[in-house]
Automatic annotation (TrEMBL):
Organism: Acinetobacter tandoii DSM 14970 = CIP 107469
Domain 3-hydroxyisobutyrate dehydrogenase-like NAD-binding: 160-281
Location of the active site: K166
Gene Ontology biological process terms from the UniProt entry: organic acid catabolic process
Family under the similarity heading: Belongs to the HIBADH-related family.
Start and end residues of each 6-phosphogluconate dehydrogenase NADP-binding domain: 4-157
InterPro entries (alphabetical): 3-OH-isobutyrate_DH-rel_CS (IPR002204), 6-PGluconate_DH-like_C_sf (IPR008927), 6PGD_dom2 (IPR013328), 6PGDH_NADP-bd (IPR006115), HIBADH-like_NADP-bd (IPR029154), HIBADH-related (IPR015815), NAD(P)-bd_dom_sf (IPR036291)
Gene Ontology molecular functions: NAD binding; NADP binding; oxidoreductase activity
Protein's recorded name: 3-hydroxyisobutyrate dehydrogenase
Amino acid sequence: MSQSIAFIGLGAMGWHMASHLPKLGLPVYVWNRTTEKAELHAQQFGTQAVNLEQAVQADFIFSCLPTSADVEQLIAQYPPKAGSIWIDCTSGVPDSARKLSQQLGQNQVAYLDAPVSGQTIGAERGTLTVMLGGNKQAYQRALPIISAFAGLVEYVGCSGSGFAVKAVNNVLMATHLWALAEGLTILKQQLVDVKAALNCINHSSGKSTVSDSIMAQKVLNRSFPKTFALNLLQKDISIGLDLAQQQDSNVPIFESIQALFKEIPKAQAEQMDFTAAVSVLEQWNQTVLEV
Ligand code: NDP
């Protein structure tokens, strides 16, 4: 019998991720809280806009929502059918993954935590990195489907492991952003050519994804296009720090990064791209990182 796929949450990431699924040749159902987006997606990519009752009847159900709480609420109201696999691409909480995995498992549904990295451009190109936790057989069944939007799908361990890796990755990204902004501030105050300095760093050991592309594309040109909201990065940092706290890990840099990124209140952070966090540093130093 032909299998079907559903994608729930057509936001900055989900919109593009779901656009790659029709090439698999299976029916692809999409649902979004704002219905018009799902209808537009169907028109543009050959997916089918459906209601949630229909979406959760699919064999492979993707979700890409802001938080684990959003996913839990949705699953509680609309439980998926037995035999299906729920692939949660939200950057979520490991404890929630373990809870959902156990709860859905009682109804013969496999839950995989499968957060993604690679920004909206990676989602658009279908080259995302997927860090996957959960049942290994379910992972093997889902792999050909997930590969439609991924450049790398890495199985990282039992349920919750994918979310844990994603949280750590994003604290590292935040660290690189903040540290690079500090470095460029020092150099600008030294009257060094910031663009040339960045080029040197990108050919040296201080290079990172932030130095290589994000800093020039979003900060130095002052465009700060909102593709990944700052409040979502604040959430990811908190997930990482909660894990550290649960285990009593001694993580001074991660703690500092959390404090620095909390400088901008959540309501304001919802409206900003994550890179705009450097404005705090710019104000402290009265130095604008403009080139
Ligand atoms: P967006 O804010 O762009 O999209 C969120 C999506 O979730 C929208 O479709 C929104 O619907 C829907 N939504 C929000 N709240 C609810 C709810 N309570 N119930 C049902 N649907 C809801 O987020 P992103 O796409 O940027 O992020 C999604 C996830 O992916 C997050 O966990 C994020 O941390 C992660 N991520 C984001 C990256 C990025 O670069 N943006 C990169 C990697 C991971 P509506 O259209 O109605 O608002």
